[in-house]
Write a structure and sequence with these properties.
The protein is α/β, with parallel strands linked by helices and 281 residues long. It is built from nine helices and eight strands. 43% of the residues lie in helices and 14% in strands. The protein has an eight-stranded parallel beta sheet. The protein is globular, with a radius of gyration of 18 Å.
């Protein structure tokens, strides 16, 4: 059954506020653990340094927060681990190896990865091979510093390599090592026409993290702003014995970032009865 403590915070939608402000608000809401989105000005892969990392660690400590996974921005930035341009690809892998070091310093269990995307004019097989090689390098370095990796599929506008559960399974099976776990993003799942059951059929207990978001089916919306049956998905997660973590990822059209606390509180109010029901069964 799902438990309230499985729900963790995140700094999604807080990017226009200082990290200390975001951490204080997440702590006040009641979170003790978070997914850390690696975005400027909080902690991104282009401006991290010893002083900045020390400041972030102090803020986390001051607010009683620990980091479950570090999720560097990797869709909008000039970071692409599967790029058809070898120089960009190499630089991206190097930055993600640094991200693994940041994970270790933050005490995070996971580094969050996506497959990247190939050039639209090259074969998917070429891009797939680049993704596999890059993830293997990153995961090997992460492993050496005591960090595991999470892997999330993307939507077609974001990637031409992995956009559904079948493609994710193929990539996952092609990787070295047995410590790479899987993210179930509800909007990505819905837009691909996949189901919670399919994820558990393919990955079982390796489904370690869930992004709870509403959509139409796309959009990464706050609960209630879309039309996805989130209550059904939560019940299915509970029925499959999901024991990982969940968080919200409200991006929308950018307006959520104007008042992120109210958006998060709205999502918390919507999900609370579902955890209560799960715990009573």
């Amino acid at each position: 059954m799902l438990k309230r403590e499985q729900l963790i915070g995140a700094n999604f939608s807080f990017q226009h506020f200082p990290f200390r402000w975001a951490a204080e608000k997440l702590s006040a809401i009641g979170f003790q653990q978070m997914e850390f989105w690696g975005i400027a000005p909080h902690l991104d892969l282009f401006h991290d340094n010893r002083a900045r990392l020390a400041e972030v660690k102090a803020i986390l400590g001051d607010n009683g927060l620990t980091v479950r996974c570090f999720t560097p921005e990797q869709v909008l930035y000039p970071i692409n681990i599967a790029s058809g341009d070898s120089a960009y690809r190499k630089a991206s892998v190097e930055r993600f190896m640094r991200a693994a070091d940041i994970c270790a310093e933050l005490g995070a269990a996971y580094l969050f990865l996506t497959p990247g995307r190939g050039l639209e004019c090259e074969s998917r097989e070429t891009a797939f091979a680049h993704s596999v090689a890059s993830i293997n390098r990153i995961a090997a370095h992460a492993r050496s510093v005591g960090v595991s990796c999470l892997l999330e599929p993307l939507q077609r506008l974001e990637s031409n390599i992995v956009t559904n559960a079948d493609e994710l399974h193929a990539l996952w099976r092609a990787l070295d090592g047995d410590d790479i776990d899987v993210v179930l993003d509800i909007v990505a799942m819905a837009t691909a026409g996949d189901s919670v059951g399919e994820y558990f059929e393919k990955f079982g207990k390796r489904v370690a993290h869930v992004h709870v978001v509403d959509g139409t089916p796309a959009g990464h919306l706050a609960w209630g702003d879309g039309n996805l049956p989130l209550h059904v998905y939560l019940a299915e997660l509970g029925a499959h014995g999901f024991a990982g973590t969940l968080t919200f990822e409200p991006f929308g059209n950018g307006s959520y970032a104007l008042e992120p606390v109210s958006v998060w509180r709205r999502c918390l109010e919507a999900i609370a009865p579902h955890f209560d029901q799960a715990e009573k069964t």
